[in-house]
User: Which sequence fits this backbone?
């Protein structure tokens, strides 16, 4: 038991306590950073209402590859198909 000798824990006793504690903190930080960088966490942060094909069309429109009429026509087709796949009419 400590402190019976009046000196307290020695250097080696502190080392035996400090190394596992440092490893525990390092593992905790690593786990949090891994979770925050995971695709699953990032996907939950994104807008779920916008699908990937709509994003592609938006990028093409922004780049000037398609005009507004073409964008509207293709978005209508995509949304109609997604409603049919979901069973909504």
Assistant:
């Amino acid at each position: 038991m400590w402190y019976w000798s009046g000196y307290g824990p020695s250097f080696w006793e502190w080392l035996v306590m400090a190394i596992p504690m440092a490893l525990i903190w390092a593992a905790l930080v690593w786990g949090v950073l891994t979770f925050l960088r995971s695709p699953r966490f990032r996907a939950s942060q994104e807008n779920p209402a916008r699908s990937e094909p709509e994003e592609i069309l938006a990028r093409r429109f922004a780049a000037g590859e398609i005009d507004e009429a073409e964008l509207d026509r293709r978005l209508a087709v995509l949304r109609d198909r997604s409603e049919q796949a979901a069973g909504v009419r």
